[in-house]
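[step 3/7] fold_predict: job queued, chain A
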Amino acid sequence: MDFYFVELTLDSYNYGIVPALNALGYEHYKADNEITNKDIMCKICQQIQACKMAIINISGLNPNVMLEQGLVYGLGKPVIIIKDKNTNAISDLGSIEYIEYSHVGDLRDKLLKALD
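[step 4/7] structure written:
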C-alpha cells in the first residue's frame, strides 16, 4: 500500500484525496472503510506500519488524529499534513509544513501538485 489516510471529514477524503491519489495511480487505505472484527487501533497501527507514506488531516485538531500522527512520525514514515482554512495552526506543529485548503477541489489540486 502506498498511502494510509487519517481524517474525520469524508468529503475531503472522497472528493479531494481519493481523486488525487487515483489520478496518480497510488494505492490507498483508510481503516474505517473496511469492517472487520479487529480492534480499530490494531488496524490503524498495522496499516501505518505497512504504508509507504501517510496523509493526515488535522482539521478540527481531533486528539485521535494527533495520536495517529505521532505514531506515523514515531515510525519514521513520510507524511503529508493537510488542514482546512478554518483550523488554526498549532504551535506544536509550527515547524512542520502542511497543505492548507479552502474546499475539496483546492485540496485535490494541491495534492496533485505536491505528489507529482
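[step 5/7] annotate
The chain has a mean pLDDT of 84.
Residues 10-23 form the longest helix (14 residues).
exit 0
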